[in-house]
Amino acid sequence: MKVQTLQIRHGLPFLLLITKIMSRNPFFFVEAFRRRRRSARRYTDRPPRRRNGQWSGGQHGPRRAWRGGAAWAVRRNGRLPGRGFPSRALNGRGGARRRAAMAFPVLWVVALLTPAVAALTELGGCGPCDAARCPALPPRGCPLGRVRDACGCCWQCGRGEGEACGGAGVGGGRCAAGLECVKSRKRRKAKGGPGPAAASGSVAPVGVCVCKSRYPVCGSDGLTYGSGCQLRAASLRAQSRGEPAISQRSKGACEQGPSIVTPPKDIWNVTGAQIYLSCEVIGIPTPVLIWNKIIQGQYGIQRMELLPGDRENLAIQTRGGPEKHEVTGWVLISPLSKEDAGEYECHASNAKGEATASAKIHVVETLHEIALTKVEQHFLPSDGPTV
């Protein structure tokens, strides 16, 4: 039977202090009693002496201590004035040594027995393993696989990411493979008295299951999963449907061709205005974004003019973001002229493919024509805007 990790909650600082002292000097307490005994005898058993016309304590007479600067006191009824212990208790020959010899093994016995007592109190109800009393698993099986309980006796369904876990005894939830139980920061107090878990004697969950590998991975199905745990869960679901298992192809997101996140939009404006077209694309690896102007040639043949070219009133700007593997580009035109009218294409490409999106710039003489043009476009068939 697997024994869970134990925590010694009571008396741990005291035991650590005693262990540290004993490791440095096993006879620390014996020497402490001896020092105390010698200190008491120094001030009580040896009266001051007169040497060379002076008292041993200096030139201040017998009321000063002969050493240390403390007042010398006379015994009265076997006790020292101002002290709460009889002088005979300290001055008896062998008394301090015997008390230290008795205290030394007692402290070691306490230090050895305290962890064992704490272990018995922390086991949380793990008795002999009786497989007949284990609860039955769901008929359809466990979505994330089965794991042993906290006592290592019964099988139970592994808990998924974000679910409660922890607790001692057979009632404690265990995380599925690839997950670990982390102590929850939010501790909700039960209202209205103890809950059913406390009434039954089991320990309530103390944490939540989180994935050990918290980075995206690429599956063999070509999809990107947020973590290895999500990939494993998808693989188990696929196997339950009779489909092949999904394995991890590589760390990080799967490579994919570029796609248009935000395409450019048609613009109507007057000459001399300042306008811009914007386009946002995403792909893995990060795509390269360029702008082209579509020029209609003879016989309906189109050709692409790479921007900015030699135009002085046109500028191209590109930057990464706002998300990872995304690129945003702009075409800035100022001032707008009639020669700038036409169709502009946003073109993105990487090793996995290409993607394009286009929009038109309409140059009008007055602002009144903008409203008329939009109304005409709304009622015309969807062949594209016309001016």
UniProtKB/TrEMBL annotation:
One of its GO terms (cellular component) is extracellular space. Binds IGF1 and IGF2 with a relatively low affinity. Stimulates prostacyclin (PGI2) production. Stimulates cell adhesion. Acts as a ligand for CD93 to play a role in angiogenesis. GO terms for molecular function: insulin-like growth factor binding. Gene3D superfamilies: 3.30.60.30, 4.10.40.20, Immunoglobulins (2.60.40.10). PROSITE patterns: IG_LIKE (PS50835), IGFBP_N_2 (PS51323), KAZAL_2 (PS51465). GO terms for biological process: cell adhesion; regulation of cell growth; regulation of signal transduction. Residues 209-256 form the Kazal-like domain. Residues 258-362 form the Ig-like domain. May interact with VPS24/CHMP3; the relevance of such interaction however remains unclear. Interacts with CD93; this interaction plays a role in endothelial cells angiogenesis. Residues 122-212 form the IGFBP N-terminal domain. PANTHER family: INSULIN-LIKE GROWTH FACTOR BINDING PROTEIN-RELATED (PTHR14186), INSULIN-LIKE GROWTH FACTOR-BINDING PROTEIN 7 (PTHR14186:SF19). This is Insulin-like growth factor-binding protein 7. It holds the Pfam family IGFBP. Its main location: secreted. CDD domains: KAZAL_FS (cd00104). It is found in: Secreted. The keyword Disulfide bond applies. InterPro entries: Growth_fac_rcpt_cys_sf, Ig-like_dom, Ig-like_dom_sf, Ig-like_fold, Ig_I-set, Ig_sub, Ig_sub2, IGFBP-like. It comes from Phasianus colchicus. Residues 40-66 are annotated as: Disordered. Keywords: Cell adhesion, Disulfide bond, Glycoprotein, Growth factor binding, Immunoglobulin domain, Phosphoprotein, Secreted, Signal.
